[in-house]
Amino acid sequence: MPSLPKQPDPTRVPVLDLLRLAAVGAVILYHYGFWGTASHGVQKVALPSLAAVAQYGFLGVPVFFAISGFVIAYSAEGRTPVGFAIARFSRIYPTFVICMTLTFLTTLLLGSTYFHVTWGQWLANLFIAAPMLGQPYMDDAYWSLVIEVVFYVWITLFLASGIFPRKIDTIILAWIAITFANELTLDVPLFEKLFMADDSGFFAVGLLIYEHYRGRRDTRLYSLLTLAMGTATFQAVHKLERLGVHTHGSFDPRVVTVICIVSLGIVFAATRIKSVPLPDSVVRAIGGITYPLYLLHLQLGYVMLLLITPVPDALSTALVVTAMAVLAWFVWRFLEGPAHYLVRDKLTTLASRHGWPSRSSVGEAPVNPGHIAAPVEAGRIANH
Q1: pLDDT for 239-271, tens place per residue?
Q2: Quick one: what percent of the chain has pLDDT higher than 70?
Q3: 1 has pLDDT over 80
Q4: How far is the CA of 60 from the CAs of 67, 84, 264, 340, 350, in angstroms?
Q5: pLDDT category, 382, cuts 50, 70, 90?
């Protein structure tokens, strides 16, 4: 009996996997061509000749936040608050611990000439938000994970209160209002972190794109989407002053505006494309390696790069980035899956013992169209 051709998985958005790789590529370009990592207290940049272009790679992270808004809305559908929290935690945390530990051990054993790490720093980083415990991030890229976790907490609370996604318009309007109130008048650091006031527009765009993906077509949706895209663009441009002070770079706000609008438009268009001319296994691998690649490429990458040569060039940099991609593939292929299922099953069992339903009465949520635990906005930006 002849085998039937394999049909595309309707629960996946394959182009988002490719876009995630492009966003990680932009961040890698930023970190190796414009803003590297500190060696002996001096910022080490592998390929400064690329700075004029690489400096805009920081926008890869906000684009990741937009993709995250879409993916998280997808992941939350049909799940209870507990089920959603377990799904998100088991997705991002085991991989984070694996990659953070790999970075720590490699830096401890091979990178002490240029970098300093301690076991106390490793322990603090197990809680992700290491600076709250008085320790630096193991890798400067980790700060964006804190933003992601805050977003997950808000979605969990909204699910528990029953207003997500039923009151999504109200949530987004209130969120944007708080954003502008803080950014233009109050400028309270606590509000900035609690309400993600520097990046809310990007998450809101992702949430609204998912509304469109589900079939919603009304004037209010398009109006909110336009407002959210405007907010996201404003936030990206608004960051340039602070970014310029700390990186000594000169950014053109017109370039940032165009990149934001085009990138978000591409994310929207990607959700309308049902298939790509690549094997499904390749697309899944591309999507799968993006998170570990993001976690590994900066600190661990520079440790390996400086072991090869104290004066990096294009060849040594290309070799290291390739090695980081291979290592990310290894983590995704052999370590991430078992760790994810182990943590998920343990937490699900624990929740059941306490009478906390992890599944809704209508069944399991649809298959996630890919997972993301967002990369960063660009290394050290938020820390400066």
Answers
A1: 998 888 888 889 999 999 999 999 999 999 999
A2: 90
A3: no
A4: 11, 26, 11, 26, 37
A5: very low
List C-alpha distances in Å: 200 to 14, 42, 148. Answer: 25, 32, 11
Separation CA 252–CA 246 (nearest Å) = 16
Please give the biggest Cα pair distance in the chain: 70
Rounded distance between C-alpha atoms, residue 172 and residue 189, angstroms: 20
At 350-359, the pLDDT tens digits run 999 888 876 6
Strand (E) or helix (H) holding 354: none
Cβ neighbors of 261 (< 8 A, separation 6 or more) are 229, 233
Which uninterrupted H or E stretch holds 37? Answer: strand 37-39
pLDDT given for residue 146 in this prediction: 96
Give the phi and the psi of residue 173 in degrees, each rounded to 5. Answer: -60, -45
SS3 44: strand
CA neighbor of 74 nearest in space, from 213, 200, 176, 175: 213
* Helix segments in the chain, DSSP class H: 14-33, 51-54, 60-76, 81-110, 119-125, 143-161, 168-181, 189-194, 200-213, 219-238, 240-247, 253-270, 280-296, 299-308, 314-330, 337-353
Do 228 and 208 touch, CB atoms closer than 8 A?
yes
Sign of the CA dihedral running 236, 203, 259, 372 = positive
Place of tokens 């993709």: 67
Those residues with Cβ within 8 angstroms of residue 100's Cβ, 6 or more apart along the chain or in another chain: 122, 125, 126, 138, 139, 142, 295
Q: Are 13 and 372 in contact (CB under 8 A)?
A: no
Provide CB contacts within 8 A for 74, sequence distance 6+.
Answer: 210, 213, 366, 368, 369
> Closest by alpha carbon to 98, among 327, 309, 283, 306?
327
Residues in the chain: 384
At residue 242, the pLDDT reads 87
